[in-house]
Amino acid sequence: MLALITGGFFKIGLFLYATVLSLSYVFKLKNPSPLVFPIGLVILFYSLSLTQNYFEHVYEGLKIIPFTLHLPFQIVIPALLLVIAFLRNRKKYSPSL
């Protein structure tokens, strides 16, 4: 149990760090520290408002998330990017006579 809690803490911390650095890069901020507290509050309130109890959390994780997040981000978007890359590079490497 301690390993799960510690692993979850480091995973959330790493995601928060990546989010803060990404947003500071997007908004061209030299010092990303002012973003830590507001993004932390957004994550806190979002996590508290997602589900009301454990069973709702499990249902959402098993029935809703695979179709709304996993399918698009793991299959649809990469396949679309592959097709776009193939169509863009097709002209460059076409055999010339």
From TrEMBL:
Keyword check for Transmembrane: yes
Keywords: Membrane, Transmembrane, Transmembrane helix
Keyword Membrane listed: yes
Pfam families: Spore_permease
An example Gene Ontology CC term for this record: membrane
Recorded superkingdom: Bacteria
GO BP field: spore germination
Transmembrane stretches, start-end: 6-27, 34-55, 67-87
Annotated protein name in UniProt: GerAB/ArcD/ProY family transporter
Organism expressing this protein natively: Priestia megaterium (Bacillus megaterium)
